[in-house]
Amino acid sequence: MTPTPAQLRTLRLAAQGIAVPGLDPTAAVERMTAVQGQDLGQALWAIGVRARGATRDDVRAAFDRGALVRSWPMRGTLHAVRPDDLRLLLSLTAERTLRSIARRATELGIDRPLLDRARDTTVAALSGGRALVRDELFEEYRAAGIDPAAGRGYHLLLQLSQEGLVAWGPTARVGQGLVLLDEWAPAAAEVPDRDEALRRVLVGYLRGRGPATETDAAGWTKLPLGDLRRARAAAGDAVEDLGDGLLALADRPTTGGTPTGHLLPGFDEYLLGYADRSAQLDPAHADRVVPGANGMFLPMAVVRGRVVGTWKRTERAGGVLVTVTPFAALDTAAVRALEAAAARYARFLDAPVAFGVVEATSR
Q: Which key words tag this protein in UniProt (predicted)?
C-alpha cells in the first residue's frame, strides 16, 4: 500500500537515522552513503544528529583518524563520506562532473599543462602524510607559478578530487586540511564493476532516505535515470515498490521510539536528499527555508516529520542561544519537543544551550 504523507515522513525519519540511538559518527555516515557538507559546522551537526549521544569532538575525531573525509562525490557539492564510499561514488560520477565543469575550467585558463603542474605541486606538498589547509596549499601553488585567485585554485582542487587524488581530511583550527586520499585513507576494498557500483549506490541511497523515487535518487546522484533503473534491476528483491514510484529497502528499519522534535542543520539530507520535498515541507513555506531561492538552506525545526520553522544559533558568554522562528504558532507539545531537541544539541556541543521561540509572523 502506498504510504500516506504522514507515513512517508515517519519512514523517512527512520531511514535517515535522525536521533536513532546506537550509531557512532562513522556508522551514521555509512548508513547515509554521503551527507551534504558544504559548510563544515553544519555537516558536523548533520552527522551528530544521526549519531545520538555523540559530541562534536567525536565527529571531528572521525575525520582526524581518516574514517571520514569531505570531498565532491557528486553535483560538484561537498559531502562527508567514508573514503571507500567516496571511491565508489566517483567511479560513477566523476566523468560527468568533469564534463559539467569543463567550460568553466576553460574560462579560468585551466588547460592540461596547468592541471598537470597543479597535480605535481599538490603531490609534492602533501606527500608523507602532510595536511595543509587551503590557503597553505595555495601558497605552494603560487610558488609553482599557479595563480589560485578568481576561483582557479578551488576549481583545480575540484578537478583533482574527481581523480581521487585529494580530499579534505583532519580538522584544523579553521576548516580542514587537504590530504592525499590514498595516503591518508588507503582503500580497504576494490571498486566494483559499474553494475555492482550502481546497485550499491541505489541501495545505500534508499537505506538512508527511503522511501524515495528513482527521480529522487537521480537528483541526488546526478546519474541518468537509465542508470538508476539498471541499479533497481540489479538490486532485485532487496528493493520493494510501495506504489506511486516510491521505492524502499525490503529490510528497512522499523519506525517509532524516537523523539518527535528535531533541530536539523542547514542543507540537511532530510530535505536535500529528495527531488520532491513536499511531504516534509509545505511548498508555501519553501522560501522561508531557502530565502530568495538562493540555494542557501537554513537550519530547520522539525516536528513529527514536518518542517515547522527555521532556527539559528547565537554565540554568547557561557553558551549558545537557539532561537526558533516558526511558520505558524506552535502548540505546547511542539515547543516541548523542540526544547528537548535543543537539549540534545547542547550535549553535542558540550556547552550550555538556551532555547527560545519567537512569535510566528504571517506572510
A: DNA-binding
Kindly state the cell numbers that stand for 355: 532555547
Q: Is the pLDDT of residue 362 over 80?
A: no
Q: Using CA atoms, how far apart are residues 73 and 88, in angstroms rounded to an integer?
A: 9
Q: What percent of the chain has pLDDT over 70?
A: 99
Distance CA 20, CA 336 (A): 19
Alpha helices in the chain (DSSP H): 5-16, 25-32, 40-48, 56-64, 83-107, 112-126, 134-143, 152-162, 181-184, 194-209, 214-221, 225-235, 269-272, 286-289, 332-349
What the block records as the C-alpha cell of 216 is 529522487
CB 302 within 8 Å of CB 308: yes
How many Å separate Cα 81 from the centre of its chain?
A: 8
Q: What is the pTM of this model?
A: 0.96
CB 180 within 8 A of CB 126: yes
Q: Which residues contact 103 (CB under 8 A, 6 or more apart)?
A: none
Exposure pattern of 316-350 as b/e (b: 16+ CB <10 Å)?
eeeebebebbbbeebeeebbebbbbbbebbbebbe
CA-atom Rg of the chain in angstroms: 21
Asked if omega into 211 is within 30° of 0 (cis), the reply is yes
Cell 526544547 sits at which residue?
339
- 93 and 73 in contact (C-beta within 8 Å)? yes
Q: Do 290 and 298 contact (CB within 8 A), yes or no?
A: yes
Alpha carbon 175 to chain centroid, angstroms: 16
Amino acid at the residue 177: G
